[in-house]
Specification:
about 220 residues, alpha+beta, 7 strands, about 40% helix, about 20% strand, elongated
Length: about 220
């Protein structure tokens, strides 16, 4: 589709969205991020330390020792199992806390046009219709169409496995063009190797909801 038609469908422009409109769309579409897996409770984490086949065998050996009235051996085996389980729980609990704190510190910032002015915002705040400015090293925050580009090369190895960057440019392509041939589109999770670009973040889900005549790629 021509860029003008896409911007009209998204009710946006090359100057981006207003801050108020971006806020409304954020409340409608939610954060631009994958929901993290639910963290296990401390009790579940502790119980998981005793589910390995070796631990189960040792528990069976402990019960057998008690049955044979070999109390000392049973107590020794049980103590080893419990100490091992609690040490594993302590280490895994500490590692999970460290990862959670690290994720809180690391935040990817994106250059986006709001109210016609450049603004740095978190990747999760990008909404359909946003106009994003990209340069070397930038992460593509969402699937989008290229509005402007200058010697733009994108690393798409995470999607295609290709080690060489892909040259991107503005243009309109036939609908049947395969994903790896869509040189006018940027895919979320890839990043800029060189060049600059201005991209409108379109998000395939929005096209499927509002533009039934457009066959958006589905991963």
């Amino acid at each position: 589709m021509p860029i003008e038609d896409i911007l009209n469908a998204l009710e946006s422009s090359k100057d981006g969205l207003t801050s108020s409109e971006a806020g409304k769309r954020l409340s409608v579409y939610g954060l631009n991020s994958i929901k993290p897996p639910k963290r296990r409770s401390n009790f579940t984490l502790l119980i998981s330390q005793f589910k390995s086949p070796i631990i189960i065998i040792l528990f069976f050996a402990t019960g057998l020792s008690f049955f044979l009235r070999d109390t000392l051996d049973a107590a020794i085996i049980l103590a080893i199992v419990l100490i091992s389980g609690f040490l594993g729980f302590w280490q895994e609990h500490g590692a999970n806390d460290a990862v959670a704190k690290l994720l809180e510190v690391v935040e990817i910032k994106i250059n986006v046009l709001r109210d016609g002015m450049p603004l740095k915002t978190g990747l999760e705040n990008i909404v359909p219709g946003d106009v994003v400015m990209l340069k070397a090293g930038a992460v593509i925050p969402a699937d989008g169409i290229i509005l402007e580009s200058d010697s733009l090369n994108i690393d798409e190895a995470t999607l295609t496995g290709e080690t060489y960057p892909v040259e991107k440019q503005v243009g309109v392509l036939p609908l049947e063009t395969p994903l790896n041939g869509r040189k006018n589109v940027l895919w979320m999770g890839t990043h800029v190797i060189s060049g600059t670009a201005v991209s409108s973040q379109v998000k395939c889900t929005l096209f499927r909801q509002q533009m039934h005549t457009f066959s958006a790629p589905v991963f």
